[in-house]
User: Which sequence fits this backbone?
């Protein structure tokens, strides 16, 4: 009996595959509309810079130019100076 145990395991695996295959045939996946990419046009003069506040979590966000060469984050409103 112990000689058959590997074969019984393989048989069980094949049985499970047959069951899932039959289930997939019975319930084919519905056609789903593909996700549509959304494109945005950034404001002129904006730059993608890293924002190191906890709100933006060091992610790269859009920054508007501010006075004296500083940049204001559009995500949290923090103004960082110069080369951010
Ligand atoms: Zn920010």
Assistant:
């Amino acid at each position: 009996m112990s000689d058959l145990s590997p074969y019984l395991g393989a048989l069980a695996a094949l049985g499970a595959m047959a069951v899932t295959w039959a289930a997939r045939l019975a319930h084919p996946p519905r056609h789903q509309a593909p996700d549509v990419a959304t494109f945005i046009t950034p404001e002129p003069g904006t730059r993608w810079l890293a924002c190191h506040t906890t709100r933006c979590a060091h992610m790269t966000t859009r920054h508007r130019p501010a006075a004296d060469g500083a940049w204001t984050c559009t995500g949290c409103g923090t103004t960082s100076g110069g080369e951010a």
In short: Residues 11 and 17 are 10 Å apart (CA to CA).
